[in-house]
Design brief:
The chain is of the alpha/beta class and 193 residues long. 34% of the residues lie in helices and 20% in strands. The model has no long low-confidence stretch (mean pLDDT 92). InterPro entries: Flavoprotein-like_sf, FMN_Rdtase-like_dom, NAD(P)H-dep_reductase.
Amino acid sequence: MTENTHVVAICGSQADDSVTRVAAERTLDAARSAGATTDLLDLRQWDLPTFDPDRPDAGEASAVRRRVREADAVLLATPMYHGSYSSPLKTALDYCGFDEFADTTVGLLAVSGGGFPLPALEHLRTVCRALEAWTLPTQVAVPDSHSAVTDDGAFADDGVAERVDALGQELVAYANVATYPDCPSTPAPAAGD
């Protein structure tokens, strides 16, 4: 972590009672507990028309880009729709580019109404690779969203809550990491092993 680490979460859900938003907010809470300042870009509140390369500053695109560019680490949080991530998040990412994401630490979080939203996470990881971001190996999948959060806004499953908290802490711990940290080398097995 660098001093004054700033983490931005981009929430791609449009639902008022969004589990994705609950998870993004909890991730940011964990990042704040680890010493970061945070910012939630709730895409419901931004004017981002479908991306048109002839109008790269349409709506509030330049303000979104500026807030993402100011981040030391970014959380991409999305519901899974039809096996991928949400169109509002796709639109926000289309307005961004290397200036916002190259060498930026990114964490991934996806929520699904059914099973594990792994395809959405894989698709986001591919986009992050194309943008030359440094994507954390840890990612969070929240399945069964209809029963994932209690009436008081807490996660029903302690394991999910712990993974969400760990993601927030890792965003802070690995902020501004442009390359993977050195790993201890494993000695080669001896002949005959």
